[in-house]
Amino acid sequence: QELGCRTTHCNLEVVYRSTLVFLATKPHILPAVLEEIRPAVGSHHIVVSLVAGVTIQTLQRLLPPWTKVLRIMPNLPCVVQAGAMVFSRGSKAGDEEAELLKSLLSSCGLCEEVPESYIDIHTGLSGSGVAYVYLFAEALAEGAVKMGMPGALASRIAAQTLLGAAKMLLETGEHPAKLRGDVCTPGGTTIYALHQLEKGALRATVMNAVEAATNRACEMAKD
Amino acid sequence: AGVLAAHKITASSPDTDLPTVSGLRKMGVNFTVSNKDTVKSSDVLFLAVKPPIIPFILEEVGPDIEARHIVVSCAAGVTISSIEKKLSTFCPTPKVIRCMTNTPVIVREGATVYATGTHADVEDGKLLEQLMASVGFCTEVEEDLIDAVTGLSGSGPAYAFTALDALADGGVKMGLPRRLAVRLGAQALLGAAKMLLESEQHPGQLKDNVCSPGGATIHALHFLESGGFRSLLINAVEASCIRTRELQHVADQEKISPAAIKKTLLDKVKLESPSLSVASASKVSLFTSKSKKN
C-alpha cells in the first residue's frame, strides 16, 4: 500500500483487473487458490508462478487449457535489485510472454529463461545459495574478531569483500580460478590461507551443499 | 640431444659396476675412473653426486680447478656459497652454477632451472641453458627459489607416476587390461599437460571445458575434491621443498661422515689423492691444515 499499489482480499478481483498474474503462495495453499481463480482466467492472461516445487505440468492441469503459464524461481536479493531468477514456459506461453517477463524482472537482477529441469538446480545454487554466502560472511568476520577486529566492522568488511569479489567476477568475465591466482603472490598470505581452505575440502563441501538442496527441491516437488 | 658430440663428454665414476656406466660407454662418451682426469680434460663439470658427497668431491678435485672451469652442481640443497667457499681455498674466482633438473631429461622433456654464482658470467649461464634446453625446458631463477622448484618439478615426476599407477588401478578395476590402462592413463596426462602448455587458458578453465553438466567428469571431480586432492598436492610440494632446505644444512656441514661413502670407493680414491684421509671410527674434518693442495 505504501508503494501506491491497490490491495484487496479478493483473489478473483486481482485476476479480473490484471493481465499478468503472479502466484506467490505457499505450495500447499496453491491448489485451492487455483480452484478459486480458474473461472476468471482467460486466454489473455499470463499466469506466473513463484511457488516452490509446483511444476508447470501441475499448474497447467489445475488451470484452463488456454492459460499461458510460466514458472519462475527468484532468490532473496531481488528485494535489493540484485537477484538471480530463472524461468520456464508452459506449452501456451510464447516468445512474447517470455520477453515480457524477462524485461520486467531484469530490473530486479539477473533473469534468464531455462529448461524446467534447471529450476531445482537454481534452488540449490542460488535460492539456498544466499544462505551459504551468509554463513561464509559470518565465518570470515569471526576469523577477524578472533584476530582482534571489532565484530561490527568485521561484518561490514566481510560483506564488502564478497560484494567486491562478485562484482569483479561479473564485470571481468574472467574465470574465478584466474582471478584467484591473480590475488596470490608467491609465498604470500593468500596462498597460505587458500591451503587451509583446501585442507578443509571446502570445494567438496560446497558441492555437497548444492547437491543436497537440489535433491531436496526435487523431493519436495514430488510431494 | 644433438647439442654436443659424445666424444666431447667425459664421465667419471670410481665405481664401474653401475648400470649407468655401460650405458654411457655405449653412447660413445669417454669414461674414466679418475675424477681428477675428468677435470683436467673438461671445461664444464657436472657434479652429479648425492649432497653429502659434494664436499668430498670438491676437496678431491679442488686442486685441479682452474679459472676456465664452470662447476655445475645438481645436488639438492647444496648452496652456491657453500661450493664457492670450498673451492676458493684452491681457486680465487671459481665459476659455480647451481641447477635443479628432473628425470624426464631422459626423454628430452626435462624441467631445469639454474642460478649463477658470484664469478659465473652471463655467457656461462647461457651455455648451461643451451645445453639443458636441448633436453627440455630451462630457465634462470634466483637461487632462493630452487628449493621450491625441487618440490614442484624435481619431485613432480614421482607424484605423476603415483597418480598414473592409481589411475591405471582405476581402469583395471573397471575392466581394462593393465597395459592398456597404463598406456591410456599416461597419454591422458601427457595430452593434458601439452594442452595446458600450448593454451593461454587457466587450468581451471580447461577443466571446466571437460565437464559437461551432470556428466561423468564432474561426478569424478567431486570425489577428488572430497578427498582433498588439491591440498594433498599442495602438501606434497611443500614437504619436498622443506625437506630440501633441511638437506641444505646437511650439505653445508664441513664434516663428512665416513658412513656416507663406501669403503671400497674410498680406497680407490685415496690412491689418487694421498693428501686425503678419513678416519674410520669417528667423523673427521677433511679441511684440516694437513690437507691442502699439493
TrEMBL record, chain A:
One of its GO terms (molecular function) is pyrroline-5-carboxylate reductase activity. Belongs to the pyrroline-5-carboxylate reductase family. It is an enzyme of class 1 (oxidoreductase). It catalyses: L-proline + NAD(+) = (S)-1-pyrroline-5-carboxylate + NADH + 2 H(+); L-proline + NADP(+) = (S)-1-pyrroline-5-carboxylate + NADPH + 2 H(+). Residues 116-220 form the Pyrroline-5-carboxylate reductase dimerisation domain. Keywords: Amino-acid biosynthesis, NADP, Oxidoreductase, Proline biosynthesis. The lineage of its organism: Eukaryota, Metazoa, Chordata, Craniata, Vertebrata. NCBIfam families: proC (TIGR00112). Homodecamer; composed of 5 homodimers. This is Pyrroline-5-carboxylate reductase. It comes from Leptocoma aspasia. Residues 2-53 form the Pyrroline-5-carboxylate reductase catalytic N-terminal domain. The gene is Pycr3. It holds the Pfam family P5CR_dimer. GO terms for biological process: L-proline biosynthetic process. Pathway: Amino-acid biosynthesis; L-proline biosynthesis; L-proline from L-glutamate 5-semialdehyde: step 1/1. PROSITE patterns: P5CR. Oxidoreductase that catalyzes the last step in proline biosynthesis, which corresponds to the reduction of pyrroline-5-carboxylate (P5C) to L-proline using NAD(P)H. Proline is synthesized from either glutamate or ornithine; both are converted to P5C, and then to proline via pyrroline-5-carboxylate reductases (PYCRs). PYCR3 is exclusively linked to the biosynthesis of proline from ornithine. Its EC number is 1.5.1.2.
Automatic annotation (TrEMBL), chain B:
One of its GO terms (biological process) is L-proline biosynthetic process. It holds the Pfam family F420_oxidored. NADP(+) binds at residues 13, 48-51, 74-76. Its EC number is 1.5.1.2. Pathway: Amino-acid biosynthesis; L-proline biosynthesis; L-proline from L-glutamate 5-semialdehyde: step 1/1. Residues 7-77 form the Pyrroline-5-carboxylate reductase catalytic N-terminal domain. GO terms for cellular component: mitochondrion. Its main location: mitochondrion. It comes from the Eukaryota. GO terms for molecular function: pyrroline-5-carboxylate reductase activity. It is found in: Mitochondrion. NADPH binds at residue 35. It is an enzyme of class 1 (oxidoreductase). It catalyses: L-proline + NAD(+) = (S)-1-pyrroline-5-carboxylate + NADH + 2 H(+); L-proline + NADP(+) = (S)-1-pyrroline-5-carboxylate + NADPH + 2 H(+). Keywords: Acetylation, Amino-acid biosynthesis, Mitochondrion, NADP, Oxidoreductase, Phosphoprotein, Proline biosynthesis. Gene3D superfamilies: NAD(P)-binding Rossmann-like Domain, ProC C-terminal domain-like. Residues 143-247 form the Pyrroline-5-carboxylate reductase dimerisation domain. Belongs to the pyrroline-5-carboxylate reductase family. This is Pyrroline-5-carboxylate reductase. The gene is Pycr2.
